Amino acid sequence: MRFSEAWLREWVNPPVDTQQLADQLSMAGLEVDAIEPAAPAFNGVAIGLVETIAPHPDAAKLRICRVDVGQGDALQIICGATNVAEGMRVAVAMIGATLPGDFKIKKAKLRGVESFGMICSASELGLAESSEGILPLPDDAPLGEDFRAWLGLDDHCIEVDLTPDRGDCLGIAGLAREVAVINRVALTAPGIEPVAPACDDRVEVELRAPDACPRYVCRVIRNIDPNAATPMWLRERLRRSGLRPISPVVDVTNYVLLELGQPMHGFDLDKLEGGIRVRMAEAGETLALLNGEVATLRADTLVIADAVKAIALAGIMGGSETGVAIETTDILLESAFFSPIAVSGKARGYGLHTDSSHRFERGVDPQLQVRAIERATRLLLDIVGGEPGPVAEVCSEAHLPRREPLHLRERRVAQILGLELPAETITGILERLGMELEPLEDGWRVRVPGARFDLLLEVDLIADIGRIHGYDAIPISHASAAAATHSPSEIAFDLERASLALVDRGFNEVITYSFVSPQLQTLIEPEASTLKLANPLSSELSTMRTSLWTGLLQTAAYNQSRQMERIRIFESGLRFRLDSNGLQQTLGMGGLVTGARLPEQWGQRSGAVDFYDLKADVEAVLALTGATEHFGFVPDSHPALHPGQTARIERDGQSVGIIGMLHPAIADRLDLDSDVFLFELDVAALGVGILPKFEKVSRFPSIRRDIAIVVDASVSFEAISACVRSAASELLREIVLFDVYTGQNIDSGRKSLALGLILQSSSQTLEDVTVENTVARVLARLAADLGARLRD
């Protein structure tokens, strides 16, 4: 929220400067994001009166104005603005003045006519980004007075970043209360007295959804002046708060929103058909909004309607058909309490976010509505006149929020804060915060103000006591007990070490959202049961991911669209699945590679990455368990992967992950223009590893025998390796696959594999006969189990 410091100090004026005030708010949990001057630096600008206007003799678009600035003779000033008029009070930059941007005003001659100053527009004074014509001032602006001092521009605009639970501070009233409590100074709120009705007109109100809107207050005001303008002081407060002045009725409702925190709305009474009905929307019903969009309503949306149609999205935005226009003379003011649950997420569902929805989603004081409408009525009568009717209030007491008193124990305050506070300090803080206290034997029974939706438990009260007392005033203490340390198991799978291993292999770690597009999730795992968010940030982020691939693929597509051709990324994080036991959250690690195998360089040609490149990366991760021989890759299928390049990763027969090439159809849908390879591991399933054991290095030489065998193309190297190891006994140290061949002299459906068998004994030098017998057993077992034969 953005507000004017000068406005705040009308409510409460502590003896601190701007920076100290900002520091106090931040320490109280209301973080100040920025402090900016209300207007850029300028000087030498006075309030003047345009006495006469004459045409320029040599320029059709220029006029010669004589302007009285209260210094005797009127100044002759050349002005090109079309809206300048005789009798208008204006801001005049006199000779010697300095305007924003270090623009100095000097005596000038325009087309042969001298000009002794400049009549300023709002943009030239830094009060608007753009403006059409000069800035008109009210008729009561004091002639000759310094413009900057008269408008109070030596002010600051303070921006606070409020947490969602502090909706009570989304108004000057709430912020002033906090400042008054912190500084122990008086709070001077403007007097809000009931406005006596001048007519008997009222509109009938029917609450058809009392759980969503338990209180609705409205008031008819007839015969307002459609030509009246919002006064300068009110327009300035809106500007300094980040809002654009529009018209008196809209400006007053916005002013009350900023001052009290109560959103309001004004309807054109003549455009309403029948009374007001607060109801749920009919599915498919349409509403033209004030921002020019047409919303197709859902059945879960609360609307304000007349007897015929919906006229506003409750708590979000009004409809254009019944909005206040420049010719409007009769209005209906609305001030209501909408349940946060009824409004929460609805604005985002329609692609909207308004000041009203921002407040109603966080909670508005359910007792504030009548006070707000009386405040708005008085302001409107002072600005546009009119004849107010009586306040019409319809309330369903049973559906208003009920706040049960909280039991606050004095000893619990000391336990939580680590500080013994006197009872009078505790009661003083809570009472200044607007709470009602009833003494009990061990503490107090506390009644919380309706605006404080964040105070639900005893610890919330204690937190309030701590922040008002000042966390910096709580002495530092250290634990006296010895801290118990717990080290992870030495054989547990180390996710951090695995991440570093991938980084060493050229991967970059990414972090993506856990909530993803439901369309992309369905594309990756169409059969998975997903968790839908009740209050998503957007429809594109409404489903919790069941796989890390969704974020990885989006990241790859994003980078490819920015000319990044070689991509190697990985991510570790939670996945969310629904099954018969409810929601299951599992930790996974996933990776993606695409593009060239090696970075661009001169020493070696680099082809495109393939399945086996990623398989080697995965094997490097699995090797960290020390149990490489327990893992295997088994041909499998997956809806998101290429049917011929997919493998299930197993550990002792149990699935621990999957690897493969992204299906070309999905790659096309995601605009990925090269082959993409993915893997995903279940971290928990990797379990514990095996500690390395010392083995004495054999002092006897090893012997290598190479063999070339022909097997069916469907036989995997993993099956061949297992068969060789079972036949070679303990003499086999290593199997090296150094060639795979299909083609001439090899039957169709068959392949040739060249294997290097490295044999070594730890107790003796191997004799030829032992080596030959071992190789013979290997060949016999390969022939018997896999139908292998020696290649000719």
Walkthrough of the structure:
- By secondary structure, the chain is of the alpha+beta class.
- The chain is 25% helix and 29% strand.
- It is built from 21 helices and 40 strands.
- Strands 3, 4, 5, 6, 7, 10 and 11 form a seven-stranded antiparallel β-sheet that branches. A seven-stranded mixed β-sheet has the order 28-31-32-36-35-34-33, sandwiched between helices. A five-stranded mixed β-sheet has the order 13-16-19-20-21, with no helix packed on it.
- Strand 6 and strand 7 form a beta hairpin.
- Helix 1 (5-11) packs across helix 4 (172-183).
- The mean pLDDT is 92.
Task: Walk me through the topology.
Blueprint: E1 2-4, H1 5-11, H2 18-27, E2 31-37, E3 43-56, E4 59-68, E5 75-79, E6 89-99, E7 103-104, E8 108-110, E9 113-115, E10 118-119, E11 136-137, H3 147-151, E12 156-161, H4 172-183, E13 205-207, E14 215-222, H5 232-240, H6 248-260, E15 265-268, E16 276-280, E17 286-288, E18 294-296, E19 302-305, E20 310-313, E21 317-318, E22 331-337, H7 340-343, H8 346-349, H9 355-362, H10 369-384, E23 387-388, E24 392-395, E25 406-409, H11 410-417, H12 423-432, E26 436-439, E27 443-447, H13 458-469, H14 495-504, E28 508-509, E29 515-516, H15 518-524, E30 543-544, H16 549-560, E31 567-579, E32 582-594, H17 611-622, E33 631-635, E34 641-651, E35 654-662, H18 664-669, E36 676-682, H19 683-686, E37 703-712, H20 717-728, E38 732-741, E39 750-759, H21 768-786, E40 789-790
Parallel strand pairs: 13-16, 28-31
Antiparallel strand pairs: 1-12, 2-12, 3-4, 3-6, 4-5, 6-7, 6-10, 6-11, 8-9, 14-22, 14-23, 14-24, 15-22, 16-19, 17-18, 19-20, 20-21, 25-27, 26-27, 29-30, 31-32, 32-36, 33-34, 34-35, 35-36, 37-39, 37-40, 38-39
